[in-house]
Write a structure and sequence with these properties.
By secondary structure, the chain is mostly beta strands. It has two helices and 19 strands. It has three domains: 105 residues, Structural Genomics Hypothetical 15.5 Kd Protein In mrcA-pckA Intergenic Region, Chain A (Roll), CATH 3.10.290; 62 residues, OB fold (Dihydrolipoamide Acetyltransferase, E2P), CATH 2.40.50; 51 residues, SH3 type barrels.
């Protein structure tokens, strides 16, 4: 009888580069559980506790901490030590009253400390939108969740003002939309992929090209020092309007 299901183990050598782990000292590493983020775009709670924060020396200690409900991800208790966390996720540790936001950097995913007020919301990029039964609109977000926008009149959906690749500010407690940020010129963005990953600044220009997909359009971004760099629309994440709605690392 053939084997059923996917491979549940993972060696350190082929593990994603964003994990920033020692590759030759040990052989195996815990594989992320199925969840909201792809394996190459996430980091497990075990790695967060052991590699990034250093509050656990071994995977067994990390498992004990997580199983006791001492780690909250986006306001929810997660008891799986291999739960995958990714960009913009908010990690809270009630016992120490500390909160962090997962952000991309040139060296991989990092934990950026945030204040209590900022830890009450997260930014989510709209990856897709679908019209469902009764004319309501479902927004599919980058973290695997979705938000339903209800329409009073299915033929005239005045409530549907959202577009793919724009950003929503979502409250963690009630999952309500607190803000909406369009992908447009002069908007502050964070680069989440490509060779400029981790850099942030404001959009100077979006080069339109007939027949080309919007995700593949070239974007010019200016950082706070006046330096320009280019990437594609798919790699930029709007993080505010006139200024960023979240705190960002000084050196990205």
């Amino acid at each position: 009888m053939g084997k059923k299901g996917g491979i549940r183990h993972l060696k350190r050598k082929p593990a994603p580069k964003k994990w920033g782990i020692e590759r030759k000292q040990y052989t195996w590493i815990g594989k992320p559980s199925p969840g909201p983020h792809r394996m190459d775009q996430c980091i497990t709670l075990t790695l967060v506790l052991r590699e990034l924060l250093g509050v656990a020396k071994t995977a067994k200690e990390a498992k004990t901490i997580v199983s006791q409900g001492k780690v909250h991800v986006d306001g929810k208790i997660r008891r799986d030590e291999y739960y995958p966390t990714g960009s913009m996720d908010v990690l809270t540790f009630p016992d120490s009253n500390l909160s962090y936001r997962v952000l991309p950097s040139p060296k991989g995913l990092i934990l950026h400390p945030v204040e209590k007020e900022e830890a009450s919301f997260k930014l989510c990029r709209i990856e897709n939108k679908t019209t469902i039964r009764d004319g309501h609109v479902q927004l599919d977000l980058h973290d695997g969740t979705n938000i339903l926008v209800r329409a009073a009149d299915p033929k005239k959906r005045t409530e549907d003002t959202y577009h793919v690749l724009d950003t929503l500010k979502v409250g963690l407690e009630g999952r309500e939309i607190q803000g909406y940020m369009k992908l447009a010129k002069d908007m502050p963005v964070l680069t989440v992929g490509g060779k400029n990953v981790g850099k942030h600044g404001k959009i100077i220009e979006i080069e339109e090209s007939k027949g080309q997909k919007r995700r593949d359009l070239l974007v010019t971004v200016e950082d706070k020092n006046g330096n320009h760099f280019q990437t594609t629309v798919n790699f930029v994440f709007v993080v505010g309007e006139a200024s960023p709605s979240i705190s960002l690392p000084e050196v990205a």
